[in-house]
């Protein structure tokens, strides 16, 4: 089944990183009902994301276009846990601001500049005591970007993203909830 044009239109109209950040922010606020590339693109942000929406909107509007995020979650009795984590695209200048914001903390940035396709997997979620999802696992290769956005972006936007840095930021402390978000917001928004 193909995606209705009205759902793809906001995404396929993007031409700049700022355009893509604005549409992502609109999706986070519930103004756009479709996010290409998600398991279910018509699903709104997951309930765990509700507490992060304001900071994610701020980050997207500040030039760090997020594609994946999660709050920290302490280990449960059945072995489920999460590290605070976010992945996004940005310019080199924005990455330098992220890097400066993290300086002196335990927070970790896993940057991939344009043309660098090295993967550096770091577990960020455990389910039933086993690693389940990882940071550092996406690359900035054109095919990977097109897949990540479910084929909804035009060639111009895909080309822009291939010139961007792909940056994962994670908190190495399982379950810590606020440090990553406060440092990123302060570093990018003020």
UniProtKB/TrEMBL annotation:
InterPro entries in UniProt: DUF6919
Highest taxon above the source species: Bacteria
Domain DUF6919: residue ranges: 9-188
Protein name: DUF6919 domain-containing protein
